[in-house]
UniProtKB/TrEMBL annotation, chains A, B:
Gene3D superfamilies for the chain: 3.40.50.2300, lambda repressor-like DNA-binding domains
Signal sequence, renumbered to the chain: none
Statement: the UniProt record of this protein carries the keyword Hydrolase: no
Stated name of the protein: Transcriptional regulator, LacI family
Domain of life: Bacteria
Length: 339, 339
DNA sequence: CTGAAAGCGCTTACAG
DNA sequence: CTGAAAGCGCTTACAG
């Protein structure tokens, strides 16, 4: 909390009014762009405002109007470029619509998420967009709804029963596309690298297992090597895989970050991705284009996903009675050099 | 702008007061944690608040108190993990101090930056932390100061005359450390890859050139290959370098992103960084640990830099009369496998 | 077309 | 220790 420099009194519409020789209602009307005011008058008002350096006090206006032009955005892991890209798309669309974003980073910490949500609520924001932290209770959407604040959930679903607006991707299909490609190249033993828990992992693993069934290939559970969904994790997972099952020459990764780690482990072992080992990532973050080698991956257009989440939220704000909305990004496989 | 669900009237301190059988002043005092109120009474008030689902209206309170607990954070390029990491450090420290962040992304667009600054001003934030977009006029700090809002500039300086709080790194020294290392390994012809413009490039190039002088090595201007400070740019720069000057076997890059692009171009050419070519990045973003190969780079602790910027801003808010503050991160060379 | 008045939900001296 | 009152800077019917 901070007060303004003492002694300094900011100009208000009353000051503008007195300079322009009108009432403060008139000033307010002009500022809000009402067409009740003749051009001559409104010009005079605007000039007066500029002259005395008047600054619109949005908080006061919003308090009076019981409205808000701020939207709370809660991100679980900003160090993952995927989420940063989602945020970029979201922020841009929101800014275009005249909204400002209150950004909070939970770092996958449920307690922090709770705290942050409470603060956002007290700020009186117009809506919330959230990438829920892992382990977020299914009750979250109901709870936020009960506050009367519009909500969109991004990336991670929250389990069966709850109904809420959601923007995400078809994770199972994405993995199936990657798997089909690898099978098409002749691979039969294909590993799945990375991920510990969460709905997204669940969906991606589903796609992984479904592919074996669809192609009548026997599935070996130990082809799944779990790890933190990070570069470190991907590196460790690939090291373990190479040690345990030398015959495996292909893998799809939980996400691009794990794939980068795996790429690095491959390099350590003197193996070249795309020639000695086929590796496919997931997300298509910007980094994949010029990794070494450029990463083949499943494109779910992170930035666009963020923008779509904004669209859903904006629609919900405008029309609270709307039926539940879902945006599910169609994945596409983008082939580069790694597999 | 959105209104709350119609018909729904949120509880106010007046409601709490009537339930708790006290005056609204008492409620306010309790909520603000005043010790004027006996425990028995404040317990009663808190219970009443919880019972009717009262939510503190921060905007109203702040309007009355002429204060704010929001800080505007303006980021120029959130797609660059370096800035995302700075943001994470900044946000965490600010949140710890009880502040919320209004986040705006300018995408290096000066017009957008101007717009965003105006909006932040109208929101009545307590302070601004900005990574200025390239080409930001030197007058920006003066202008923000004239609004009466505390400011900290991050990462990029704004030129000579202006005085403002700043958190950044010793860029020249960082490059010199990298260069000394390469020279120690026996290299004489060392390229500088990436960057187009801006103060950071200037400083890093200064360090680059100084090293040649210090070691009495002849400096070839065409060893500097400029490019966008991105992976694409780094890739293109390395391709050009490889084509033009086959004798060069070492380079320091403008930043880690360019280094990744260069790594990728090296891979394309069948060259291994760290054995056929020594490559050093700058920033030490998280991605460097497990790139292929792991990138040697100059560590300027992005997350900590963000946290330090928060510290400076918080100090400025508390004590507007403070003399100009600077935090300049000491770089350290971290050697991994690329060079 | 413009002005006087009430009110958004708080905080803060000031009495009592 | 608690209550009545004024006021933060706006907006919005309502008169005129």
């Amino acid at each position: 909390m901070s007060k303004k420099t003492p002694g300094f009194r900011a100009a208000t519409i009353l000051d503008v009014a007195s300079v322009a020789n009108v009432s403060k209602s008139t000033v307010s009307l002009v500022l809000r762009g009402s067409d009740l005011i003749p051009t001559e008058t409104s010009d005079r008002v605007r000039k007066a405002a500029a002259k005395i350096g008047y600054v619109y006090n949005r908080r006061a206006a919003e308090l009076r109007r019981q409205s808000s032009n701020a939207i709370g955005v809660v991100i679980s892991d900003l160090r993952n470029p995927f989420f940063a890209e989602v945020l970029v798309g979201l922020e841009r669309r929101l800014a275009e619509a005249g909204y400002t974003v209150f950004m909070a980073h939970t770092n996958e910490d449920l307690e922090r998420q709770q705290r942050v949500l409470t603060i956002l609520r007290e700020q009186g924001i117009a809506g919330i967009a959230i990438c829920p932290a892992l382990g977020t209770p299914i009750s979250l959407p109901r709870s936020v709804k009960s506050w009367g604040v519009p909500l969109v959930v991004m990336v991670r679903t929250l389990g069966g029963g709850a109904s809420y607006d959601f923007a995400g991707a078809d994770n199972s299909l994405g993995v199936r596309q990657a798997m089909d490609h690898l099978i098409g190249k002749g691979h039969r033993r294909i590993a799945f690298l990375g991920g510990i828990t969460g709905p997204v992992l669940q969906q991606r693993l589903d796609g992984y297992k479904e592919t074996f069934t669809a192609h009548r290939i026997r599935f070996h559970p130990d082809l799944i090597v779990t790890s933190q969904p990070t570069r470190e994790g991907g590196h460790a997972a690939m090291v373990r895989l190479l040690k345990a099952r030398k015959s495996v020459k292909a893998a799809v990764c939980y996400n691009d970050l794990t794939a980068f780690g795996a790429l690095s482990a491959l390099g350590d072992a003197g193996l070249r991705a795309g020639v000695d080992f086929d590796l496919i990532g997931f997300d298509n973050i910007l980094d994949t284009i010029h990794s070494n080698p450029p990463l083949s991956t499943v494109d779910i257009k992170p930035e666009q996903m963020g923008a779509e989440a904004a669209v859903l939220l904006l629609a919900r704000i405008k029309e609270p009675g709307l039926k539940v909305q879902r945006f599910i990004q169609e994945p596409t496989l983008v082939l580069r050099q790694s597999g």
